[in-house]
Amino acid sequence: MDEPVAVVGASMTKFGERDAWVQELLAEAGKECLEDAGVAPSDVEHVYAANMASGEFEGQGGIMNALAHDLDLLPAYSQRVDQTSSSGGAGIYAAWQSIASGASEMTLLVGGEKMTHRTTGEATDVIASITHPAEYKQGVTLPSFAGMTARHYLEKYDAPRESLAKVAVKNHKNGVENPHAQFRKEVDLETVLESPIVADPLRLYDFCPITDGSAALLLCPESVAQEYADEYAIISGVAGATDTHVVHEREDPTTMGGVVESSQEAYEMAGIGPDDVDVAELHDMFTILEFLQMEGLGFADPGEAWKHVEEGRTDRDGELPINTSGGLKSKGHPLGASGVAQGVEIYEQVTGEAGPRQVDADVGLACNVGGFGNCVITTILESGGEAA
Amino acid sequence: MSEDDRTPKTTDGGTDAQPPFAATRYESGAISYPGHPTGPEGTEPAETVDLAEYTAEVVTWTTSTATPPGVRQPNHLAIVEFEVPDPSGDDVHSVRALGQLTTDGVETGDEVRPVYVEELREPGVGIKDEDSAQDWDGYRFEPV
Predict the structure, then answer these.
(1) Does any domain span residue A337?
(2) Model ipTM value
(3) B-side interface with A, Cβ within 8 Å?
């Protein structure tokens, strides 16, 4: 199928500490997305539920079936998509494939996770279970990978510790304008730098929180989108790539191979390069990841990303705004929802619906990272219809 | 790194009957820890290399204070790099490993050696069952 794949609807729940379980969260975002687009449940042919660990967190399986039933989507084909923290991005890829292949003319993607009923230690252990057994037995966590990588980056490039803190300050500032964000409160540099150490040299405010929430996107061929909306987004590029399971086997700890490979393929598909991107949502689960993705995506040369942040180039009024939503850092990180929520923010930016967060954007990019760069999905959205 | 000719350690929970710190050498000469059924560039595993016979250099490190259930707190961790000569002695291959440190105060570039420990974390306390495929013993790194 040569027809472009469009996004005609988007929604997300309030992120944070929620009483609802994952099944309810998925239904909440999914229902709002269909209503946003004016699409009847009976018109949905495929439904994908992006989720990392509902079994581990809640003992709940079969959530794609539950979602389809709860929204009266039967007999639509349903499938759960798990790619750890990049499940949402993988869901976008799967939903795009379902439309591009011609298998579906209306596909609903909903990503969600329920985590906050677990202690921080329990949630950290569920996430750490994605590591190789040789890593897991050492008590390694994703934050400890971030600490080791941040130290290596700072030492290798002689970058100041404060530059990482400025990522947190920027993204918290952006999150104030996002009504769905978990934290809508600015933090100053001193607060970040004096917060408790979690994985030396990284401190509490260098990390995203544990979050409940859900987000949804509705995909269809562009010709179908034109029946529902004057303004929509086009998925002009989407690709995924995988790096080593064992993190220390990577030749350069500061290079995220999955980001490099997936973005090159997505740029090629879209026929653009990094200089053409107007706005980006990056997977800032840890502040250091924003630097590594900026460099892997070609937004900055190796070892130079920290300078872009220091100079304000990634601020909302900068030349390349990054994480206008507040990012995972401020908005929150309900694992399976995060990649979809990145897509929601880029959809709103390129269709002019981002309200007080709006920047001048026709082309937006989302980079969703699973594990510590183990799996990566890069998605490029462009304005479509009257939004173009 | 120089070859370490020390006798088996018994400090820090180790035993005389320590298993090898088993890395895998592939037909290409490349070494990885842990090993994989297929190595870099599609090569087959050729032999096991015991990294416990060598010292290593600290590439980077962290001290993790937010540890999961069953893991010591704080948990000092490092990525280290061994340089292992090939059997002919004509070439040297680098191989990295991640592991706990026996102490804090270790810096990037320091030389460390592996020390066997029977339980790196408490079995069965976290998400994995004690009787699962997960093993719980292994090596920490001690400053030389």
Answers:
(1) no
(2) 0.94
(3) 32-34, 59-72, 75, 77-79, 96-100, 108, 120-121, 126-128, 133-138
